[in-house]
Design brief:
Blueprint: E1 5-7, E2 10-12, E3 16-18, H1 27-35, E4 40-47, H2 48-63, H3 67-72, H4 86-99, E5 104-110, H5 117-125, E6 130-135, H6 146-163, E7 168-172, H7 179-188, E8 193-196, E9 204-206, E10 211-213, H8 224-234, E11 241-245, H9 251-260, E12 264-267, H10 269-274, H11 278-292, H12 298-301, H13 318-327
The structure holds flavin mononucleotide (FMN).
Flavin mononucleotide (FMN) binds near residues 20, 199 and 269.
Amino acid sequence: MDLSTKYLGMALPHPLVAGASPLSDDLDGVKRLEDAGAAAIVLRSLFEEQITREQLAEYLNLDYPGESFAEATSYFPSPNAFALGPVQYLEHLRRAKEAVGIPVLASLNGATPGGWIEYARLMAQAGADALELNLYRIATDPETTSAEIERQAIETVREVKESVTIPVAVKLSPFYAAFANVARELDRAGADGLVLFNRFYQPDIDPEELAATRTLHLSDSSELRLRLHWMAILSGRVRPSLAVTGGVHTAVDVVKATMAGAHVTQMVSALLLHGPDHLRTVLNDLAAWLQEHEWPSLAEMRGNMSLLKVPDPDAYERANYMLMLQGWRA
Ligand SMILES: Cc1cc2nc3c(=O)[nH]c(=O)nc-3n(C[C@H](O)[C@H](O)[C@H](O)COP(=O)(O)O)c2cc1C
Protein backbone atom coordinates (compact mmCIF):
# COMPACT_ATOMS: atom_id res chain seq x y z
CA MET A 1 0.00 0.00 0.00
CA ASP A 2 1.43 3.38 -0.99
CA LEU A 3 1.19 5.63 2.07
CA SER A 4 4.02 7.90 0.99
CA THR A 5 3.87 11.63 1.44
CA LYS A 6 6.01 14.73 1.22
CA TYR A 7 6.41 17.09 4.14
CA LEU A 8 8.62 20.21 4.18
CA GLY A 9 10.24 18.92 1.02
CA MET A 10 11.12 15.58 2.67
CA ALA A 11 9.89 12.36 1.12
CA LEU A 12 8.39 10.21 3.89
CA PRO A 13 7.13 6.61 3.63
CA HIS A 14 3.92 7.50 5.47
CA PRO A 15 2.40 10.46 7.35
CA LEU A 16 2.74 9.29 10.97
CA VAL A 17 5.09 11.65 12.79
CA ALA A 18 5.86 11.62 16.51
CA GLY A 19 5.00 15.17 17.64
CA ALA A 20 6.91 17.25 20.18
CA SER A 21 6.74 15.49 23.53
CA PRO A 22 8.79 14.04 26.37
CA LEU A 23 8.86 10.71 24.48
CA SER A 24 11.96 11.87 22.62
CA ASP A 25 13.75 13.45 25.59
CA ASP A 26 16.38 10.72 25.65
CA LEU A 27 18.06 8.58 23.03
CA ASP A 28 16.22 5.41 24.05
CA GLY A 29 12.94 7.22 23.50
CA VAL A 30 14.08 8.51 20.11
CA LYS A 31 15.10 4.98 19.05
CA ARG A 32 11.83 3.51 20.34
CA LEU A 33 9.88 5.93 18.17
CA GLU A 34 11.94 4.95 15.14
CA ASP A 35 11.46 1.24 15.95
CA ALA A 36 7.71 1.85 16.27
CA GLY A 37 7.79 3.10 12.67
CA ALA A 38 7.61 6.90 13.06
CA ALA A 39 8.28 8.62 9.72
CA ALA A 40 9.92 11.54 11.55
CA ILE A 41 10.31 12.86 15.08
CA VAL A 42 9.77 16.36 16.44
CA LEU A 43 11.79 16.99 19.59
CA ARG A 44 10.26 18.86 22.50
CA SER A 45 10.56 22.66 22.34
CA LEU A 46 13.40 24.73 23.56
CA PHE A 47 11.76 27.76 25.18
CA GLU A 48 12.91 31.31 24.61
CA GLU A 49 13.00 31.84 28.36
CA GLN A 50 15.67 29.14 28.63
CA ILE A 51 17.71 30.78 25.92
CA THR A 52 17.35 34.22 27.43
CA ARG A 53 18.39 32.89 30.77
CA GLU A 54 21.53 31.42 29.30
CA GLN A 55 22.37 34.59 27.43
CA LEU A 56 21.70 36.67 30.53
CA ALA A 57 23.89 34.38 32.60
CA GLU A 58 26.74 34.84 30.16
CA TYR A 59 26.32 38.60 30.17
CA LEU A 60 25.93 38.99 33.91
CA ASN A 61 28.77 36.65 34.70
CA LEU A 62 31.00 38.98 32.77
CA ASP A 63 29.76 42.24 34.21
CA TYR A 64 27.86 41.64 37.44
CA PRO A 65 28.97 38.61 39.38
CA GLY A 66 27.22 37.36 42.50
CA GLU A 67 23.97 38.59 43.96
CA SER A 68 22.78 40.75 41.10
CA PHE A 69 22.63 37.68 38.87
CA ALA A 70 20.31 35.85 41.24
CA GLU A 71 18.13 38.93 41.52
CA ALA A 72 18.00 39.63 37.80
CA THR A 73 17.06 36.08 36.90
CA SER A 74 14.54 35.52 39.69
CA TYR A 75 11.58 36.13 37.38
CA PHE A 76 12.56 33.31 35.02
CA PRO A 77 11.28 29.78 35.55
CA SER A 78 13.87 27.75 37.42
CA PRO A 79 16.25 25.88 35.09
CA ASN A 80 15.10 22.66 36.78
CA ALA A 81 11.62 23.29 35.38
CA PHE A 82 12.93 22.44 31.91
CA ALA A 83 13.74 18.95 30.73
CA LEU A 84 16.70 20.04 28.63
CA GLY A 85 18.76 23.22 28.91
CA PRO A 86 19.83 24.97 25.68
CA VAL A 87 23.30 23.36 25.57
CA GLN A 88 21.92 19.93 26.45
CA TYR A 89 19.20 20.39 23.85
CA LEU A 90 21.70 20.94 21.05
CA GLU A 91 23.78 17.99 22.22
CA HIS A 92 20.69 15.78 22.41
CA LEU A 93 19.68 16.85 18.92
CA ARG A 94 23.16 16.03 17.57
CA ARG A 95 23.11 12.59 19.19
CA ALA A 96 19.52 11.88 18.16
CA LYS A 97 20.47 12.59 14.56
CA GLU A 98 23.35 10.14 14.82
CA ALA A 99 21.18 7.49 16.49
CA VAL A 100 18.34 7.25 13.98
CA GLY A 101 17.87 7.25 10.22
CA ILE A 102 14.58 9.18 10.14
CA PRO A 103 14.32 12.97 10.00
CA VAL A 104 14.58 14.74 13.36
CA LEU A 105 12.95 18.14 13.70
CA ALA A 106 13.92 20.60 16.42
CA SER A 107 11.32 22.82 18.01
CA LEU A 108 11.73 26.40 19.20
CA ASN A 109 9.15 28.15 21.33
CA GLY A 110 9.61 31.88 21.24
CA ALA A 111 7.62 34.80 22.57
CA THR A 112 9.44 37.80 21.14
CA PRO A 113 11.03 38.41 17.76
CA GLY A 114 14.77 38.34 17.41
CA GLY A 115 16.00 36.75 20.61
CA TRP A 116 15.96 33.16 19.44
CA ILE A 117 17.13 33.50 15.86
CA GLU A 118 20.62 32.46 16.90
CA TYR A 119 19.28 29.20 18.32
CA ALA A 120 17.51 28.44 15.08
CA ARG A 121 20.95 28.60 13.46
CA LEU A 122 22.54 26.45 16.14
CA MET A 123 19.80 23.84 15.75
CA ALA A 124 20.39 23.74 12.02
CA GLN A 125 24.13 23.36 12.62
CA ALA A 126 23.46 20.55 15.10
CA GLY A 127 21.84 18.62 12.26
CA ALA A 128 18.09 19.26 12.56
CA ASP A 129 16.38 18.26 9.33
CA ALA A 130 13.85 21.03 9.85
CA LEU A 131 12.61 23.44 12.50
CA GLU A 132 9.19 23.69 14.04
CA LEU A 133 8.53 27.15 15.45
CA ASN A 134 6.01 26.90 18.23
CA LEU A 135 4.33 30.31 18.39
CA TYR A 136 2.54 30.19 21.72
CA ARG A 137 1.60 33.65 22.84
CA ILE A 138 -1.05 34.82 25.27
CA ALA A 139 -1.84 38.49 24.71
CA THR A 140 -2.93 39.51 28.20
CA ASP A 141 -2.22 43.23 27.74
CA PRO A 142 -5.45 44.93 26.57
CA GLU A 143 -3.33 47.48 24.69
CA THR A 144 -1.79 44.80 22.48
CA THR A 145 -3.60 44.53 19.17
CA SER A 146 -4.12 41.40 17.10
CA ALA A 147 -2.38 43.19 14.23
CA GLU A 148 0.73 43.60 16.40
CA ILE A 149 0.70 39.94 17.46
CA GLU A 150 0.34 38.81 13.86
CA ARG A 151 3.04 41.19 12.66
CA GLN A 152 5.48 39.80 15.25
CA ALA A 153 4.69 36.19 14.33
CA ILE A 154 5.19 36.89 10.63
CA GLU A 155 8.39 38.85 11.31
CA THR A 156 9.75 35.99 13.42
CA VAL A 157 9.14 33.50 10.64
CA ARG A 158 10.77 35.81 8.09
CA GLU A 159 13.83 36.32 10.32
CA VAL A 160 14.22 32.61 11.04
CA LYS A 161 13.87 31.79 7.35
CA GLU A 162 16.63 34.30 6.59
CA SER A 163 18.88 32.67 9.21
CA VAL A 164 18.67 29.02 8.19
CA THR A 165 18.54 27.01 4.99
CA ILE A 166 16.62 24.04 6.44
CA PRO A 167 12.80 24.00 6.12
CA VAL A 168 10.79 25.86 8.75
CA ALA A 169 7.31 24.82 9.89
CA VAL A 170 5.14 26.99 12.14
CA LYS A 171 2.97 25.48 14.85
CA LEU A 172 0.00 27.75 15.38
CA SER A 173 -2.83 28.54 17.68
CA PRO A 174 -6.36 28.52 16.21
CA PHE A 175 -7.22 31.74 18.03
CA TYR A 176 -6.83 34.33 15.30
CA ALA A 177 -9.76 36.42 14.09
CA ALA A 178 -8.82 35.71 10.47
CA PHE A 179 -6.80 32.52 10.57
CA ALA A 180 -6.82 31.95 6.80
CA ASN A 181 -5.19 35.33 6.30
CA VAL A 182 -2.56 34.61 8.97
CA ALA A 183 -1.77 31.37 7.14
CA ARG A 184 -1.47 33.23 3.84
CA GLU A 185 0.86 35.84 5.39
CA LEU A 186 3.05 33.13 6.94
CA ASP A 187 3.17 31.52 3.52
CA ARG A 188 4.37 34.86 2.09
CA ALA A 189 6.94 35.15 4.89
CA GLY A 190 8.44 31.87 3.67
CA ALA A 191 7.01 29.24 6.06
CA ASP A 192 7.52 25.79 4.57
CA GLY A 193 4.88 24.14 6.74
CA LEU A 194 1.91 24.98 8.96
CA VAL A 195 1.17 22.78 11.96
CA LEU A 196 -2.46 22.96 13.12
CA PHE A 197 -2.94 23.41 16.06
CA ASN A 198 -1.18 24.03 19.29
CA ARG A 199 -3.24 22.93 22.25
CA PHE A 200 -3.74 25.63 24.84
CA TYR A 201 -3.55 24.51 28.42
CA GLN A 202 -5.85 26.61 30.56
CA PRO A 203 -5.38 26.61 34.32
CA ASP A 204 -8.28 25.46 36.46
CA ILE A 205 -9.29 27.17 39.70
CA ASP A 206 -9.22 25.43 43.03
CA PRO A 207 -11.98 27.33 44.87
CA GLU A 208 -11.03 25.92 48.31
CA GLU A 209 -7.34 26.73 48.11
CA LEU A 210 -7.87 29.90 46.03
CA ALA A 211 -5.22 28.67 43.66
CA ALA A 212 -4.87 28.32 39.90
CA THR A 213 -4.10 24.67 39.25
CA ARG A 214 -2.27 22.97 36.42
CA THR A 215 -3.40 19.62 35.10
CA LEU A 216 -2.38 18.43 31.66
CA HIS A 217 -5.24 16.57 30.00
CA LEU A 218 -4.28 14.39 27.09
CA SER A 219 -6.41 14.73 23.97
CA ASP A 220 -8.94 12.38 22.40
CA SER A 221 -10.18 12.13 18.82
CA SER A 222 -12.88 14.77 19.42
CA GLU A 223 -10.15 17.44 19.26
CA LEU A 224 -9.52 16.55 15.65
CA ARG A 225 -12.57 18.43 14.33
CA LEU A 226 -11.14 21.90 14.82
CA ARG A 227 -8.04 20.77 12.88
CA LEU A 228 -10.10 19.13 10.12
CA HIS A 229 -12.11 22.29 9.69
CA TRP A 230 -9.13 24.61 9.18
CA MET A 231 -7.09 22.08 7.29
CA ALA A 232 -9.97 21.74 4.81
CA ILE A 233 -10.22 25.53 4.48
CA LEU A 234 -6.48 25.95 3.80
CA SER A 235 -5.84 22.87 1.67
CA GLY A 236 -4.92 23.80 -1.89
CA ARG A 237 -4.96 27.51 -1.08
CA VAL A 238 -1.56 27.95 0.60
CA ARG A 239 1.86 26.74 -0.52
CA PRO A 240 3.31 25.34 2.78
CA SER A 241 2.86 21.68 3.64
CA LEU A 242 0.19 21.03 6.22
CA ALA A 243 0.49 19.00 9.41
CA VAL A 244 -2.23 18.11 11.89
CA THR A 245 -1.42 17.93 15.58
CA GLY A 246 -4.18 17.39 18.12
CA GLY A 247 -6.61 14.51 18.37
CA VAL A 248 -4.91 11.98 16.09
CA HIS A 249 -5.42 8.63 17.83
CA THR A 250 -6.57 6.13 15.20
CA ALA A 251 -6.13 5.22 11.54
CA VAL A 252 -9.53 6.74 10.75
CA ASP A 253 -8.31 10.02 12.30
CA VAL A 254 -5.36 9.90 9.89
CA VAL A 255 -7.69 9.20 6.94
CA LYS A 256 -9.92 12.16 7.88
CA ALA A 257 -6.94 14.50 8.33
CA THR A 258 -5.54 13.42 4.95
CA MET A 259 -8.89 13.92 3.24
CA ALA A 260 -8.99 17.42 4.76
CA GLY A 261 -5.56 18.04 3.21
CA ALA A 262 -2.88 17.01 5.73
CA HIS A 263 0.51 15.91 4.46
CA VAL A 264 1.44 14.52 7.87
CA THR A 265 -0.34 13.74 11.11
CA GLN A 266 1.52 14.12 14.37
CA MET A 267 0.70 11.97 17.37
CA VAL A 268 1.49 12.64 21.03
CA SER A 269 -1.37 11.88 23.46
CA ALA A 270 -2.09 8.52 21.82
CA LEU A 271 1.57 7.52 22.19
CA LEU A 272 1.73 8.74 25.79
CA LEU A 273 -1.45 6.78 26.59
CA HIS A 274 -0.65 3.51 24.79
CA GLY A 275 3.14 3.64 24.37
CA PRO A 276 5.21 4.38 21.23
CA ASP A 277 4.30 0.99 19.68
CA HIS A 278 0.77 2.32 19.17
CA LEU A 279 2.18 4.14 16.16
CA ARG A 280 2.84 0.80 14.45
CA THR A 281 -0.75 -0.30 15.18
CA VAL A 282 -2.15 2.88 13.61
CA LEU A 283 0.16 2.42 10.62
CA ASN A 284 -1.01 -1.16 10.06
CA ASP A 285 -4.66 -0.14 10.54
CA LEU A 286 -4.17 2.67 8.04
CA ALA A 287 -2.86 0.33 5.34
CA ALA A 288 -5.73 -2.08 6.07
CA TRP A 289 -8.32 0.71 5.90
CA LEU A 290 -7.10 1.88 2.52
CA GLN A 291 -7.08 -1.66 1.19
CA GLU A 292 -10.56 -2.37 2.48
CA HIS A 293 -11.90 0.85 0.96
CA GLU A 294 -10.02 0.30 -2.29
CA TRP A 295 -7.89 3.42 -2.19
CA PRO A 296 -4.75 2.83 -4.26
CA SER A 297 -2.71 5.33 -2.26
CA LEU A 298 -2.98 7.94 0.43
CA ALA A 299 -2.04 10.65 -2.08
CA GLU A 300 -5.25 9.92 -4.02
CA MET A 301 -7.42 11.00 -1.12
CA ARG A 302 -5.36 14.01 0.04
CA GLY A 303 -7.55 17.10 0.13
CA ASN A 304 -10.55 15.41 -1.51
CA MET A 305 -12.70 16.78 1.33
CA SER A 306 -11.16 20.25 1.27
CA LEU A 307 -13.26 23.37 0.83
CA LEU A 308 -12.09 23.59 -2.79
CA LYS A 309 -13.21 20.04 -3.61
CA VAL A 310 -16.00 19.06 -1.24
CA PRO A 311 -19.42 18.70 -2.87
CA ASP A 312 -21.00 20.63 0.02
CA PRO A 313 -18.81 23.70 0.67
CA ASP A 314 -21.39 24.96 3.19
CA ALA A 315 -19.97 22.32 5.53
CA TYR A 316 -17.02 24.62 6.26
CA GLU A 317 -18.81 27.96 6.11
CA ARG A 318 -21.17 29.98 8.30
CA ALA A 319 -24.15 28.05 6.91
CA ASN A 320 -22.91 24.96 8.75
CA TYR A 321 -23.23 26.78 12.07
CA MET A 322 -26.84 27.73 11.39
CA LEU A 323 -27.74 24.27 10.06
CA MET A 324 -26.23 22.55 13.10
CA LEU A 325 -28.12 24.73 15.56
CA GLN A 326 -31.39 24.74 13.64
CA GLY A 327 -31.20 20.98 13.10
CA TRP A 328 -31.28 20.15 16.82
CA ARG A 329 -34.60 18.71 17.97
CA ALA A 330 -35.38 18.41 21.69
C1 LIG B 1 3.57 16.21 27.97
C2 LIG B 1 3.51 17.02 26.70
C3 LIG B 1 4.60 17.81 26.36
C4 LIG B 1 4.55 18.58 25.19
N1 LIG B 1 5.61 19.37 24.87
C5 LIG B 1 5.55 20.12 23.74
C6 LIG B 1 6.65 20.93 23.35
O1 LIG B 1 7.68 21.00 24.01
N2 LIG B 1 6.51 21.66 22.21
C7 LIG B 1 5.39 21.63 21.44
O2 LIG B 1 5.33 22.30 20.40
N3 LIG B 1 4.34 20.86 21.79
C8 LIG B 1 4.40 20.12 22.90
N4 LIG B 1 3.33 19.35 23.24
C9 LIG B 1 2.13 19.38 22.39
C10 LIG B 1 2.13 18.22 21.43
O3 LIG B 1 3.24 18.27 20.54
C11 LIG B 1 0.86 18.18 20.59
O4 LIG B 1 0.81 19.31 19.73
C12 LIG B 1 -0.42 18.19 21.42
O5 LIG B 1 -0.30 17.29 22.51
C13 LIG B 1 -1.63 17.79 20.57
O6 LIG B 1 -1.44 16.53 19.98
P1 LIG B 1 -2.10 15.18 20.59
O7 LIG B 1 -3.55 15.35 20.55
O8 LIG B 1 -1.58 14.10 19.66
O9 LIG B 1 -1.57 15.04 21.98
C14 LIG B 1 3.38 18.55 24.38
C15 LIG B 1 2.31 17.73 24.74
C16 LIG B 1 2.36 16.97 25.88
C17 LIG B 1 1.19 16.12 26.23
